[in-house]
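Appendix B. One record, verbatim.
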Amino acid sequence: MTDNSTRKAVALISGGLDSLLAVKALQEQGIYVEGINFYTGFCVEGHTHAIRKKDKQKPKRNNALWSAEQLGIKLHIIDIIEEYKDVVFNPRYGYGANLNPCLDCKIFMVKKARQWMEANGFDFIITGEVVGQRPKSQRKDTMPVVQKDSGINDLLLRPLCAKNLPPTIPEKAGWVDREKLYDFSGRNRKPQIALAKKFGFEDFAQPAGGCCFLTDEKYSVKLSDLWKSRGEKTYEIDDIMLLKVGRHIRPAEHFKIIIAREEGEAKYLQGYKKQYDSLKTISHSGPLALIDGNLTNKELKLAASIVARYSKGRTDPQVSLDFQTKSGEVTSIKVSPLPADEIKPEWIL
């Protein structure tokens, strides 16, 4: 082994257990590590957890920052929202089960990390990947694709499954002792949990199925609907944030209703009332709803009757609502709540 005091690695930090362990494994060998967390806008943690009541017991924290704190490393959070759009719109290797471009995503992030590594005088990159853990991006046949297409080649080390892969430059050059790395494989999390206990980590994030909304079927349906309604693949940050919140109902191609499901979501949607027209029940307790699109008077009454259906007045003959335009003009409307069997299944996204 050579002196590691000058060897520096940059780690992709998701906030999950695997990247936490990968960094710790190299710190144990004297490697200096800094982390990178790429912000795409599609991350699960920290958004819905902070809004929804059902997630109230989950820690309201940025897990990547929390992991960096546990490891005692510097974390660089890099906004890639605009650059990442092409990965989502045009994945060379296609989508996974939903709209998740996992292999293209990994290639893109490793390439960005390589550019950062070269610009900042670091020696190699580490990730928390495990062979066989993800069906698209973490297979033995796709892992070399990430190395080749990102341009990192043999300067990408995956400490948790290194013994299942050919030796990398950090191992062959003696910067890292291959015998002290691991041979984890598959989706079984028990080896990682055991290693976490060995390293003394008692609290850590355990994402199921990844931490990206693009892997979620319901979210992907809503994103696909957004693209269809606009006639092209496009989104801005507000669009992808709103897809995470509320009940989305599209009674017609040219408009959609986003209805808050609970108080936290209503408070969140309140912040968008200057960007969207809105409906709010006033005669009964009920949700705030945003209207995405332009409505005729007939369609406005339909939208109001749908929102009334989700209020406390759902069984009453009439419900009063305020319709507020994004410019602030308010009109009162009285409607009969739409019966549940008249809300067509194909409207609900």
